[in-house]
Specification:
The structure is a single chain. This protein is mostly beta strands. 0% of the residues lie in helices and 58% in strands. The chain contains no helices and 11 strands. The strands form 2 sheets. Strands 2, 4, 5, 6, 9, 10 and 11 form a 7-stranded mixed beta sheet that branches. The protein is globular, with a radius of gyration of 14 Å. The termini are far apart. 29% of the residues are buried.
């Protein structure tokens, strides 16, 4: 089993910044892609950003140019630097990791990000 624990969420004014972290622990054989997803009230969970083991990244159009995903493989940790935050970024942010040869997917419990206008 792999456990993912997110941190770094909080309340920030529009235009502000937050940095989310997600640390993986447990029976980690190999972490392939890692990513961040978010779910706002009444909406479906959506992709925010992903990063492969080779550091290739992918972003939702709504966050391009404002958010940056990165990872530290030695620490089994993925980060999301969020700048110029907007009220529409308010959501619970979930960390995801795909592990092993079967790319089994694991999820964290989420961290709340609230952006006030």
């Amino acid at each position: 089993q792999v456990q993912l624990v997110e941190s770094g969420g909080g309340l920030v004014q529009a235009g502000g910044s937050l940095r989310l972290s997600c640390a993986a622990s447990g029976s980690i054989f190999r972490i392939n892609a890692m990513g961040w997803y978010r779910q706002a009230p009444g909406k479906q969970r959506e992709l925010v950003a992903t990063i492969t083991s080779g550091d290739s990244t992918n972003y939702a159009d709504s966050v391009k140019g404002r958010f940056t995903i990165s990872r530290d493989n030695a620490k089994n940790t993925v980060y999301l630097q969020m700048n110029n935050l907007k009220p529409e970024d308010t959501a619970i942010y979930y960390c995801n990791a795909e592990c092993g040869s079967l790319n089994r997917s694991y999820w964290g419990r989420g961290t709340q990000v609230t952006v006030s206008s």
